[in-house]
Amino acid sequence: xxxxxxxxxxxxxxxxxxxxxxxxxxxxxxxxxxxxxxxxxxxxxxxxxxxxxxxxxxxxxxxxxxxxxxxxxxxxxxxxxxxxxxxxxxxxxxxxxxxxxxxxxxxxxxxxxxxxxxxxxxxxxxxxxxxxxxxxxxxxxxxxxxxxxxxxxxxxxxxxxxxxxxxxxxxxxxxxxxxxxxxxxxxxxxxxxxxxxxxxxxxxxxxxxxxxxxxxxxxxxxxxxxxxxxxxxxxxxxxxxxxxxxxxxxxxxxxxxxxxxxxxxxxxxxxxxxxxxxxxxxxxxxxxxxxxxxxxxxxxxxxxxxxxxxxxxxxxxxxxxxxxxxxxxxxxxxxxxxxxxxxxxxxxxxxxxxxxxxxxxxxxxxxxxxxxxxxxxxxxxxxxxxxxxxxxxxxxxxxxxxxxxxxxxxxxxxxxxxxxxxxxxxxxxxxxxxxxxxxxxxxxxxxxxxxxxxxxxxxxxxxxxxxxxxxxxxxxxxxxxxxxxxxxxxxxxxxxxxxxxxxxxxxxxxxxxxxxxxxxxxxxxxxxxxxxxxxxxxxxxxxxxxxxxxxxxxxxxxxxxxxxxxxxxxxxxxxxxxxxxxxxxxxxxxxxxxxxxxxxxxxxxxxxxxxxxxxxxxxxxxxxxxxxxxxxxxxxxxxxxxxxxxxxxxxxxxxxxxxxxxxxxxxxxxxxxxxxxxxxxxxxxxxxxxxxxxxxxxxxxxxxxxxxxxxxxxxxxxxxxxxxxxxxxxxxxxxxxxxxxxxxxxxxxxxxxxxxxxxxxxxxxxxxxxxxxxxxxxxxxxxxxxxxxxxxxxxxxxxxxxxxx
Length: 805
Known about the structure:
This protein is α+β, with helices and mostly antiparallel strands. The chain is about 55% helix and about 10% strand. Helix 3 packs across helix 21 (about 430-455) and helix 22 packs across helix 32 (about 730-740).
């Protein structure tokens, strides 16, 4: 497959993309309710298919359909208020239904699932619009609007379905068993929903006030059969926290009884104690490392103090003292950065220890706080527990308590009278008959209501009615639309065909890697020729190397070798253990520190020239005193040859330990690196660009970055000067699609790092060769990059802090 095809697959496994999927497909809410919908719609194929996708269906609505529904709600609400304008309403509705039918036919193309998705998402949009329009209306008017809108919307979609397909029995059954059974209820809380349904309850045999009272009594205690699933989820949590517990409870419809709550609580305590022991050990280990660094800092400071005293007593020039001071500064800064990292780790462990102790001490009341309850969960409880009832005594009390409300309902007392049983001293009400009617209403009204609400939880539309859309949401919808995973209404998006399959194992091979950074100091030969003094040349080079080492150690790099005109640096996740000599086994991780170090080295190299220009007249006095005056010179006014003296080439290669990079002591008992990555990084460090330093890396480094950073976007000439937030949603969608197609690299947004593909590397017959432009390198199903003859290849990238022209 092509590089871009592999990258498209890899992007789906990045933390950034997975987080967007969780957010914009609302996977937790989806998983919480889809099982319930599947349970109450067992024979429905559409719901079974959607439930397998793990998240909400995304639908992008074009401007026209959005505007049509806004106008429809406004016009019909106006007509309900003043039915004298019949001609005006009929004229509008004819135009509206004709335009909607055209959009509908174009989108569904006779496909059943599309028919259902179109109807659900359109009804959801209309429901949201109605909610906006009637939020301040009195309850009586809301009831009228809900009933009238329910009739006209049901008629409209019945017409659309039957006009589009002869075989629409599946759609008819799904809709007729939900939307067509109840009024078009706006979005509102549980109490208001019950009031809006009061007339439906009354029509089917119970005063609304009595149905509501019985429902409330039934829902006092409740337990659903999700205990096993919740327990299994808790056992899979890698580190317990309050947030992790909340995530588990949010993802399941879980209302535990006292016994179940105690069982879950015991499991949490056992797991928390196990984790607490491990966290305490980790915290103590970090404390030991911090103490060692503090002692090391004292020792280095004392040693440097003695060395500086000797240099002052035997003073010859400033450079030697500057070198020592710079070396001391580097050591102190390196220790400071290491201490800061360890201090953050220590505080993290302290917080985790504190939270785990709190979980160990949890009581059932503490755990109840994590039980998630949404507005319409009580309705679901009624459906799941058809056999729950109230006692005869409870029923008589309930009737007495709501009698005034029943009397306020039109025909409420007449309906209640049917359940009255004449007694010796006072009348009573037939509890058995009331409960039979209650269960019947639950199936005939509440069940369809829950189906409609849950079906609308299966889909999410864009743009949002609020008009507030994040850049990430537009980018995610665009990505998914290109992959054919978004239902796009009223807009044509060419789906990218991805016939190739790459296993998760193949993508994950890039997740954790070790990296080697090799840098080459430009112009070192030219400097030696001009200096004509080996001692001064050594002092200056060491002075410069201190700047490089400062940048390296700031990001946890381990200097392995000074090559004279450069150096070799190792990046591994366990750099502290390696530096302390506790192990030579490398621990794979992120290549981000290697990349950030390379960028910092380029900045330090330029700063070195700017900070030391005033010394050039001393350093290069003998060779250039008649040809150039360094007095008052700036970097810009230096001759190119002098500008290039301290430019550097940085090469970064990442790969698998120990296959591609290995650390061990050499014959001189010094740590040394071997492996293909060393040769490749050295090769990349030799890549030159006119009048600037360069940072080059391989594809493995880039793919590792994508799998470890929290956010990235595409680097492309198209739209670089455009702020996507200034675009509307449809323009934003087009912008991101264009970015994806024309990309030539990536942007690591949080670090303002630009990664541009510049060419390809071939490995043949033991030699390395860089080819600029596009050639015949391909990626196989294992993730290996090869040319047409089976030779090993790599894609090369340049890393900068500004876009390349």
